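FW: tagging you since you asked about this chain on Friday. Here's the raw sequence from the shared folder, copied in full. Didn't touch anything.
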Amino acid sequence: MKHEQLFIAITLLLVLLLSSSCKQDSAQSVDARFASFIVNPKASNIELFWKDDDGRVFKSIQNLKNEVEKKGKHLRFAMNGGMYERNNLPKGLLIQNQKTLNELDTKDGDGNFYLKPNGVFYLTIDNKAFITPTQDFKNDGDIKFATQSGPMLIIDGRINEQFIENSSNLNVRNGVCILPDNKVVFAMSRQETSFYEF
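HL: got it, structure written out here
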């Protein structure tokens, strides 16, 4: 019996995969400037991908789509996320199937990744989703998937103090957040926007 598979992708390097039915997951369009997708991680497995079975970096969502369709699955939704180096290595933490493929980066540096606090999005083996500041992240062995990125947009219900309301730092942006019911929201701007506006 064939059942529908649901997928989400995060970056040209790191990719989120959702498997299971899509009945509890939904696309949203409250604001035309942004695209968003809400996922119940208890009903859909969220997975991170970086390389295919032959060890080649996916590099594009189309490559991922081709790969999963070869396995009889269907790509429903994809977006970029996480960060990576020029050589396509993950920037910061990457955990895939409980295996750490790249270590947590706690250094200081330039660029968006190092705007403080940056954070880690992760999923446990019992399909609970979390986002935590990098300095608070601990892997107690029950983390199934994790990716590090930065900066965190909202901390304790407040917009990150580093963001300026009328900033000229405009880019197409994407991010992830967790609702009080533990559903996960993936969002992407359809046009260039500031961190504050996003």
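FW: The CA atoms of residues 12 and 59 lie 5 Å apart.
HL: agreed, and Confidence is low (pLDDT under 50) at residues 1-24.
FW: great, closing this out.
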